[in-house]
Amino acid sequence: MSSCGSTRKLQYMQGAFDTARLSVYNIPQPIIQKGDLLSISVNSESPAASAVYNQGTVTTPAATAGTLSGAPASTGVTGGGYLVDPNGNIQFQSLGDVHVEGLTKLQLTALLDSALQVYLTKPYCTVRFLNYKITLIGDVTRPGVYAIPSEQVTLLEAIGLAGDLNITARRDNVLVMREQNGKRQWGRIDLTSPDILASPFYQLQQNDLVYVDFTRSKAAAGDQVTARNISIAATVVSTLAIIYSILKK
């Protein structure tokens, strides 16, 4: 009975699914924030005229664009890109300061397409995040910062990137920390319940931090190891003291 109970604690999404409620979902569009790095490519009927608006070549992090990647986010950029400044603006050729904070990629694309009509014939832009990343720490196999070139990842996919949770991890109380519009939000997720699919924190957003706590059994094991090491060290010191005392005589 103890073995069966322990096994259930390791299972994800236990119990019945409310298919009528959980089958409907919306993937939120990522919102541009201060500190984001954007790739903006501009095209028009005249490639020569639109070339001045393109800031060199950029590369996505060590994976084919549109797929998940376990590559560190620091490998993301080889050149170019627009950094969103502390005021939420980017400096754009011919347009000067453009306020982009709070916009989605589609909204920024529409804004630039309209503004560039003064300078280009039928312009159209493509916007991508160059710093779309998430962080997983705590009781996971491979904690770290993970780049997401597809700009879309769920909590379970992120856990898969990190090599799954360790057997000692708490699956009923995973913390997701999110910063948006200058405010921090926290969400607690129970991975053992199907209701995680309805949580606004199930679909992760750029710069989200996921913390997986460990169970009491792991904490107790850590305390036992510490106590054992202290005991061994004390024994060694006592033995050396006795030997020193004998040799001194």
SS class: alpha+beta
Order of strands, widest sheet:
7-6-12-9-10
Indicate the percent of residues in helices: 25-40%
- Average pLDDT metric: 82
End-to-end separation in angstroms reads 61 Å
Low-confidence stretches: 1-5, 57-67, 74-78, 219-223
What is the string of SSEs from the N terminus onward?
Answer: HHEHEEEHEEEEHEEEEH
User: How many β-strands, per DSSP?
Assistant: 12
Report the biggest beta sheet as strand number plus sense, adding barrel if it closes: 5 strands, mixed
Short description:
The chain has 249 residues and is α+β, with helices and mostly antiparallel strands. 27% of the residues lie in helices and 22% in strands.
Structure notes:
The protein is an alpha+beta fold and 249 residues long. Helix content is 27%, strand content 22%. The strands form 4 sheets. It has a 5-stranded mixed beta sheet with strand order 7-6-12-9-10, covered by helices on one side. The longest helix has 33 residues, at 216-248. The model is unreliable at 1-5, 57-67, 74-78 and 219-223 (pLDDT under 50).
Please supply descriptive tags for the structure shown above.
249 residues; alpha+beta; 6 helices; 27% helix
How are the secondary structure elements laid out?
Blueprint: H1 2-8, H2 19-22, E1 37-43, H3 47-50, E2 82-83, E3 89-92, E4 96-99, H4 105-115, E5 124-129, E6 133-138, E7 144-147, E8 153-154, H5 155-161, E9 174-180, E10 183-189, E11 203-204, E12 209-212, H6 216-248
Parallel strand pairs: 6-12
Antiparallel strand pairs: 1-2, 1-5, 3-4, 6-7, 8-11, 9-10, 9-12
